[in-house]
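Re: beginner question about structure tokens

> Can someone show what the tokenized structure looks like for a real chain? I only ever see the sequence side.

Sure, here's an example I had lying around. Input first:
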Amino acid sequence: MRRLTLLSLVGAAAALAGCGGSTQLVTVPEQGIASSTPNAGQKIGFPALATKNTTRVSGGDPTVDAAGIALAVYPSNGAGTHPQVVTIAPEDDWQAAIASAVLMSPPVKAPVLLSGAGSLPSATSDALHSLAPTGSGVVGGAEVIRVGHVPKVTGFRTAAISGGDPYALAAAIDRFNSAAAGKSSSDVVIASGEDPAFAMPAAGWAAESGDPVLFVTSSGVPAPTRDALLAHQHPHIYVLGPPGVIHGSVVKALGKYGVVKRVGGADPAANSVAFASFRDPPCKFGQPCAHVPGSFGWALRSPGHGYTLVNASRPLDAAASAPLSASGSFGPQLILDSGDSMAKPILNYFLNFATPGFTQEGPTAAVYNHGWVIGDPGAISVSVQAEMDTLLEAVPQK
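And the corresponding structure tokens:
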């Protein structure tokens, strides 16, 4: 498949709202639309492909989303636009895929592609050849990092990360990244290995911060996770999720390995909002809240940032979109319980913290947001995208 065709497939398959709220799937052609073409504006992708404040990655599945996002982050046209190394994570192991997001952090900075255990999907293979990674010295000159039981790739220097189960594989990813960085992180995120919707926001943070994602069960701390925590030598441990997802007894058990704090919400949307606004040490009352060196958490309680919307039913989209949290406008992943409506916790979060305002100095003096929408309109509707666009728009202050 030619590169132009791949980009059209990844970025331009859009569902456009028609009269009476009906929806029609169209594919943007490779050549320009003539002015005499009916619905010309819709057929070049608006409003589903992009609005003034949002961009959609319109894959029909996370594997296509990952290919498109990797090419968005690394356009791979000209010197300095190629990644040094690319990660291929397993489609059948969401835990390993989310844990692989940490490899997007410095110094590795590897975007995530996805594959099953057989041959590489065409979207992944085409993206890999378009990305043409140059090789990374911090991972022994490898151009591709294979995670778990993904296929071998020919024509590329590879490194492999293996593990007997998702918990062991996440721990192995952590060891690999620590070796590349030359040290282990002082902060670790613990997520549920059984409820992906509550683990998803960890992917973007791992990609931005370099903090690994390790997993626990509802009944305890698996041995690979315990060993990984010991290797971090008494880290700060942040448990992502409410007590109904990660029981208090598990949190208590984690206390043997470091200082533990919990952050989370009652449902996936509230959980992602809590993580997006969290900071340790806490922000001081009456002062601006921001991430500062030595602190943990996005601490995003003001406008002027990037935000990524992901459907809770597609956990692999969290891994696929993690590179967007670590580049461009940066910013957290917000998890929709349903792609058909804007979740109330996310709506309130945008209203309280994200909507920019400008004064008499005018809109050119304001700060601005950008929203990424992950998946085709079957994953997140055009109406939700339109609502996000409105909520992120700068407005005059009274």
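Each token stands for a local structural state, so reading them left to right follows the chain. The CA atoms of residues 103 and 109 lie 6 Å apart.
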